[in-house]
Amino acid sequence: MVQLRSIANGFWTAGTDVAPLRVVVAGDATAPDAECALTVERLLARWEVVQSSILTFLRALPADGLIQLDGAQGAFQVSDCGFDGEVRFHSLHLTDVERPQTAVVTFATGFPDGYVVFDLKLEHEDLSNLRAYCT
User: Fold this and answer.
1) What is the rounded distance in angstroms from the CA atom of residue 110 to the CA atom of residue 128?
2) pLDDT for 33-50, tens place per residue?
3) Alpha carbons 1 and 5: distance in angstroms, whole number
4) Could you give the dihedral angle defined by the CA atoms of residues 103, 109, 111 and 115, in that order, rounded to the nearest 10 degrees?
5) CA separation (Å) from 29 to 9, 14, 32, 73, 75?
6) Which strands form 116-123's sheet, in the order they lie side by side?
7) pLDDT for 97-122, tens place per residue?
8) E-strand spans in 1-135?
9) What residues contact 98, with CB distance under 8 A and at least 6 apart?
């Protein structure tokens, strides 16, 4: 079980021994949202499968496809993003109490320029909405 601690404004966080991930969960001042916390537990219990699904999804993207740079004009071509190499997972966020089965996973590859982080939405463990943004 993940031990969540309050960080502010109704959000809760934890590290995990399953993977080097930072977990962020919505809640209120007294506790994390129970459904979001349950989804975190379920995803972490199957983290190797979830991670493998993400890698399969990324590596199946068309090489000439584009990933929109969030908050800016422009996009990165999939072939420049390094998805065929090492992918380092950073965090798992469940921050929408209205959609407690929706998580966002952040990760990086070091490409295209070393300052780009990607995120991918997991909704009921279906993958969608791949975005890139500069850190």
Assistant:
1) 21
2) 999 999 999 999 999 999
3) 13
4) 70
5) 7, 16, 8, 37, 38
6) 5-8, 11-15, 22-26, 88-94, 102-108, 116-123, 126-134
7) 999 999 999 999 989 877 789 999 99
8) 5-8, 11-15, 22-26, 66-68, 75-77, 88-94, 102-108, 116-123, 126-134
9) none
